[in-house]
Automatic annotation (TrEMBL):
Converts the preformed base xanthine, a product of nucleic acid breakdown, to xanthosine 5'-monophosphate (XMP), so it can be reused for RNA or DNA synthesis. It comes from Streptococcus dentapri. Pathway: Purine metabolism; XMP biosynthesis via salvage pathway; XMP from xanthine: step 1/1. This is Xanthine phosphoribosyltransferase. SUPFAM superfamilies: PRTase-like.
Length: 193
């Protein structure tokens, strides 16, 4: 997605060896026009897939997910990282290990929001090692729902996430794919859309 790649080049900052800071339009401040465009592209890719729900994980997946859900005209559900007092029963959950933070957290979705009739599109902001998406696959599997695909805003293709997800039999659509950070510069691989 050229618009996204151009924005990454303009406003993204490489931190250290393998982190891209995009907090001015995606992970902290959100550019709704760019998110709308992302929603248009992802929904177009999956328009014939019979999607009934879009699922993401808080916090930074929510913006691209909600704009995708709007175009598909289906609900967006975000997995929570902390149970709140209103989540009293029927919780689907999975442990997610973050290689970046080296912590395991439990992510949850109330079971009445997903059923065996659902066909889910997962959307997330980053694909690095794929652990967040793997946790979502587990939760969606617990509900007996099926996953039609995974839409990613920025994939770091030098990490293992895509391989892990494709080995699990799920198709991945990444709008920007970063092959490497060479001398602090961003080098893209060919994106999926
Ligand atoms: P994984 O889910 O692919 O295995 O990713 P990993 O454990 O490596 O990453 C943990 C968190 O860091 C995730 O967000 C992920 O989106 C984010 N992340 C990974 N690589 C980058 C990067 O290069 N740049 C930025 N900005 N974020 C990255 P999270 O902890 O769930 O945070 P949030 O969604 O609440 O903001």
């Amino acid at each position: 997605m050229k618009l996204l790649e151009d924005r990454i080049l303009k406003d993204g900052n490489v931190l250290g060896e393998d982190i891209l800071k995009v907090d001015s339009f995606l992970t902290h401040q959100v550019d709704f026009e760019l998110m709308q465009a992302i929603g248009q592209v992802l929904s177009h890719v999956y328009r014939e897939a019979g999607i009934t729900k879009v699922v993401t994980i808080e916090a930074s997946g929510i913006a691209p997910a909600v704009y995708t859900a709007q175009v598909l005209n289906v609900p967006m559900i975000f997995a929570k990282k902390h149970k709140n007092i209103t989540m009293t029963e029927g919780i689907l959950s999975a442990d997610v290990y973050s290689f970046t933070k080296q912590v395991t957290s439990t992510v949850s979705i109330a079971s009445h929001f997903l059923s065996a009739d659902d066909k889910v599109l997962i959307v997330d902001d980053f694909l690095a090692n794929g652990q967040a998406a793997k946790g979502l696959l587990e939760i969606i599997g617990q509900a007996g729902a099926c996953v039609a695909g995974i839409g990613i805003v920025i994939e770091k293709s030098f990490q293992d996430g895509r391989q892990l997800l494709e080995e699990a039999g799920v198709s991945v659509t990444s709008l920007a794919r970063i092959k490497e950070f060479k001398d602090g510069q961003i080098v893209f691989a060919e994106a999926d859309a």
